[in-house]
Amino acid sequence: MRNLILDASSFRRSAIATLAAAAMAAAPAAHSAALSNDARTAIPRDVQQIIMVDYRAMQNSPAALSLKDRIMPPELKRLEQALVSSGLKVESDTDALAFTSFRAPSPDGKGGQVERIVGIAQGQFRTRDILANLTKSKAKFDKRRNNNIYPMGASGFEVSFVNPTTMVFGDRDAIYAALDARDGFAPSFLTNSDMVNEMAQVETHAIWSLLDPKGTQAMMKSVLGDAAQLTDYDTVRNRIGDSHYTMDFSNGVRFAMTVDLSDSFTAATASTLMKGVAMLRKQQGSSMEKSAIDETTISSSGGKLSVDYSSSDSEFASLLTSPLFQSVVK
Q1: CA–CA separation, 63 and 238 (whole Å)
Q2: Contact 25/57 with Cβ under 8 angstroms?
Q3: Which of 146, 141, 131 is nearest to 179 (CA)?
Q4: Are 247 and 206 in contact, with CB atoms under 8 Å apart?
Q5: Residues in Cβ contact with 299 at an 8 Å cutoff, skipping those fewer than 6 apart
Q6: Is 184 exposed, middle or buried (0-12, 13-18, 19+ CB in 10 A)?
Q7: Whole-Å CA distances, 117 to 15, 35, 43, 90, 136
Q8: Is the distance from CB of 42 to CB of 120 less than 8 angstroms?
Q9: What's the whole-model pTM score?
Q10: d(Cα 147, Cα 181) in Å, to the nearest integer?
Q11: Nearest Cα residue to 161 out of 88, 56, 52
């Protein structure tokens, strides 16, 4: 893996890992993880993927944390661990945690782009105590206009407080890009109308993730496997738009994915391809995996492809250890 520059497949794996791990928490009470307006303005416009999780639900389940630790890609694992080990009281103060992958101008100045990620934490942070401790330790800080950027221990990552309830963290270039967007020196996520509209459909859910067309193409290619080599997939590939995942667990576990396509015919073609893949995996799977596929509904309507899966908590926990699930998150 390449430091904090992610490709779409790496970020897709992290989305599935985080969603799956969060399902293991299965808290009876309903939660929702919505990005505040300050957090949204701190996300650069050219988003490839956003993953948003209810951090309290994650912390309440040792099983969920163990699973996430095994599956989460190294880039996100390092970034989250830097937050935990930086001396900030993450476990008690953090309500929600987001990871955002975005495209930024290449530092070589040749007009290309690189992918970076920035973490966003929301909660009730004791900023006065935190800043006092940083001052006492004589930690050297950087400035971006009126924003102070502090080191996160020896991790090599840094953190900046947007306000007492929102912090951004990551490598310095990622934080610079986030602060530039937040301060109006670069376009922010709020100017990306397609993704903002997509977010409106998912932000009331406990766990959610958004992907732009490029990220969705990579995800679809990975899910379809060999079927992505078929002529029918060529019809679909260049007509893929944004997509989103959601997960809820107030009554068992429900995972839902929606992919925007250009028209009804393309959505129906994508649905047919995915049903073919499901039938093939069903033939090759164990009885548990066959049951999981039977509980998955694949359909299309009005230019949208939908995939829905629901089960009990115990059934889903068993599925997470299956070869089928492991093949999806590789």
Answers
A1: 39
A2: yes
A3: 146
A4: yes
A5: 271, 305, 306
A6: exposed
A7: 13, 16, 10, 19, 30
A8: yes
A9: 0.81
A10: 13
A11: 88
Domain boundaries, the chain: 8-192, 213-329
Q: 37 is written with which tokens?
A: 């307006």
Q: Are the CB atoms for 320 and 20 separated by under 8 Å?
A: yes
Residue indicated by tokens 């926990």: 317
pLDDT in tens, 191-227: 999 999 999 989 888 778 899 998 898 888 888 877 7
The rounded distance, in Å, linking the Cα atoms of 290 and 283 is 8
Scanning the chain, the segments in alpha helix (DSSP H) are 8-25, 37-41, 55-59, 62-71, 74-85, 90-93, 127-136, 172-182, 193-200, 213-224, 231-237, 264-284, 287-294, 313-319, 323-329
Q: What angle do CA 162, 187, 257 make, to 5 degrees?
A: 85
Computed on alpha carbons and rounded to an integer, the radius of gyration of the chain in Å comes to: 20
Out of 38-47, 126-135, 245-254, the most confident range is: 38-47
What's the token pair of residue 9?
Answer: 């497949």
Helix, strand, coil percentages (3-state) for the chain, rounded to 5, are 45, 25, 25
For the chain, the distance separating the N- and C-terminal CA atoms, rounded to the nearest angstrom, is: 13
